[in-house]
Specification:
By secondary structure, the protein is an alpha/beta fold.
Length: about 625
């Protein structure tokens, strides 16, 4: 490893505050560094100083001789009159860039949907961002500095970018400095984490998961004033260890230490209790989309979709940009009407929507935050405790001085937090979140997730933030080939289906309607034949085979019912257990996990058998 960049005693000060004070750090070849911190703490300013675009008030930045440094800022310098192709590859002839495998991969991964000859001035903001990123990545750089590269990328694009960054340079060559709020991307790409806070830059080994552990350990030693942040990070760590198989299978930090830290931390959510409360508020009927189709002009967005949404379900919606996710949410919320089919809503359903445009804040733009809160209810109960609106705002990261600010003067992240608070205070029993992570830093995302964990109702989330989807939802559906399909394997299965479709040149699924039964079990005919490769799909069963399959289905359903009962009983036993008996709680947790693993396997078998019968 060799030295690429060094910063010594950096000091940066604005008229109202000091951003950095005597910061010293370095970057070596092979470093893949993610930078995290609260909005406004100086992450982008740090990147600017290291790249040479921001001049520090004192201190210096030195570079290795001949260093090739490329940077993606939050705004681009593309020529509006230039074409997309010229902006990316310049004057290079088609045969020149097409002969470069990396160039072909970048163009295919980021801008394959754009017209090569279209002028940059005709592109949307998100499309310009992708063109700027592609133009940067095609170059040869020793050090890449990326400021929010995942903005405007969908799940497919983010997965592609993560894979590209992992294999861009040979081992121990090249380096990356990255600012992003996408925690999945941080975990996939980065081997080091820098936290920007309180005028300093604090280094941690490992990606986001490792950073969470080390930060918890730091907070455990800190004074009592850090207790609130400590508990939130411990809850985050508990989910990282318990709730995401893809992460727990990769020991990025010491399992023994993690288990010791979370031994007394309860599960992130109690799904049985939340579902019971949700059913009491909603009844059995929530929203049913029955044979719904939606077209805009000659373009079909959704075709013959059936989706039955049950009380207490927490569902994430996946799909590429333009697939129809926002259209689907509009049909559920009632802001759009279907061209065919019908939407049935329960009598007690009250839907709250967190949109991307802050429409609900426009009418109160001139009001002060304190005045807005005074118009809402005086208390709000979370996990058995009563909070005032001001206390909830503080829990979401607002300082007291922000209460006197006008709504229009708030930053994007502050508006998002106020928007979420007002939504929760209205007490809807169905919440729709459309890209809730925009303008929100990782600390605030964790605080939002913490609030949503205790919210008893039906939750539907559209987001390209893979971490958020896995964290706050219990099941995922994907819009593929104009239809809605349940993906039991989550984002991984969705990406595999998209990749298979791209290789075959066909659609991502043999679509039929997708549904959700009242117990949360998917009921669509196409639900998961692909979960085990789909090798038997499409083959007609003989009479004897059909009878045997039906018998197997009945047996599986009996076993699933038994396991569900056992899991519910174990959860009740855990709730009543002595919370200081770590060994006993650990045994109960292991028993629940084993039963859940068996239940997951049975659900896959049930889905395969159902598909075989209906083929």
């Amino acid at each position: 490893m060799s030295h690429l960049l060094g910063a010594e005693a950096l000091h940066l000060e604005y008229p109202t505050r000091v951003v950095f004070d005597s910061v010293t750090l370095g970057v070596e070849t092979g470093d893949m560094i993610g930078i995290v911190g609260r909005n406004g703490d100086g992450k982008s300013s740090l990147l600017g100083m290291l790249a040479g675009t921001v001049e520090p008030d004192s201190g210096r930045v030195t570079y290795r001789g001949g260093l090739r440094l490329g940077m993606l800022g939050q705004s681009d310098d593309l020529d509006d009159a230039a074409s997309v192709g010229y902006s990316v590859v310049g004057d290079a002839a088609d045969h020149e860039w097409a002969a470069d495998p990396r160039a072909r991969d970048i163009i295919s991964g980021l801008i394959s949907d754009l017209d090569w000859d279209a002028p940059v001035s005709s592109l949307s903001g998100g499309q310009r961002r992708r063109v700027a990123l592609a133009a940067l990545l095609i170059g040869d750089w020793d050090l890449l500095i990326l400021d929010e590269p995942t903005n405007h990328l969908d799940v497919d694009g983010i997965a592609w970018l993560a894979e590209h960054m992992r294999r861009r340079w040979p081992k121990n060559s090249g380096a990356l400095l990255l600012v992003t709020h996408d925690r999945w991307f941080l975990d996939e790409v980065c081997t080091k984490t820098w936290e920007v806070h309180d005028r300093i830059v604090e280094p941690f080994e490992g990606g986001y998961a490792a950073y969470v552990l080390q930060r918890v350990e730091r907070d455990r030693i800190a004074a009592a004033t850090e207790a609130k942040r400590q508990n939130l990070m411990r809850k985050e760590l508990a989910w990282l260890r318990r709730g995401a198989p893809a992460r727990t299978s990769k020991p990025k930090f010491r399992i023994e230490a993690a288990n010791e830290l979370i031994a007394d931390v309860p599960e992130v959510r109690n799904p049985i209790e939340l579902k019971k409360m949700a059913t009491a508020r909603l009844g059995k009927d929530v929203v049913d989309l029955l044979d719904v189709s939606k077209h805009f002009g000659d373009t079909t967005i959704l075709d013959d979709v059936t989706w039955r949404i049950g009380p207490g379900e927490r569902t994430g919606i996946l799909g590429p940009n333009g697939a129809g996710k926002s259209t689907l949410l509009g049909l559920v919320a009632g802001t759009l009407e279907p061209d065919s089919g019908r939407v049935k809503r329960g009598k007690t359903v009250q839907i709250g929507v967190l949109d991307q445009q802050f429409k609900d804040l426009a009418r109160i733009a001139e009001d002060r935050v304190r005045e807005v809160l005074s118009e809402s209810k005086t208390s709000f109960t979370i996990e058995g405790k009563d909070y005032t609106p001001a206390q909830l705002l503080e829990r979401l990261g607002f300082a007291k001085e922000h209460l006197s600010a006008r709504v229009k003067e708030l930053s994007g992240g502050q508006k998002r937090r106020l928007q979420l608070l007002l939504l929760l205070m209205a007490e809807p029993n169905v919440i729709i979140l459309d890209e809730p992570t925009n303008d929100v830093d990782s600390d605030m995302l964790a605080a939002m997730e913490d609030l949503l964990d205790s919210w008893p109702g039906t939750l539907i989330v559209v987001s390209h933030d893979r971490y958020l989807l896995e964290r706050v939802t219990d099941q995922q559906y994907a819009i593929l080939d104009h239809g809605l399909r349940h993906v039991p394997g989550g984002v991984e299965e969705y990406l595999r289906l998209r990749a298979e479709a791209a290789r075959s040149g066909g659609s991502a699924s043999n679509r039929s309607s997708a549904g959700s039964g009242r117990n949360g079990t998917s009921a669509g005919a196409d639900v998961a034949g692909s979960a085990n490769g789909g090798s038997d799909a499409g083959s007609k069963l003989t009479g004897a085979e059909a009878r045997a399959t039906k018998k197997e289905l009945a047996s599986i359903e009996r076993r699933m019912d038994k396991l569900n009962t056992q899991i519910a009983a174990k959860h009740e036993e855990m709730a009543a257990h002595d919370q200081t008996d770590f060994e006993g709680l650990g045994a109960l947790t292991s028993a629940i996990r084993e039963s859940q693993d068996e239940l997951d396997e049975l659900e896959m078998r049930w889905l395969d058998a159902t598909e075989a019968l209906e083929a």
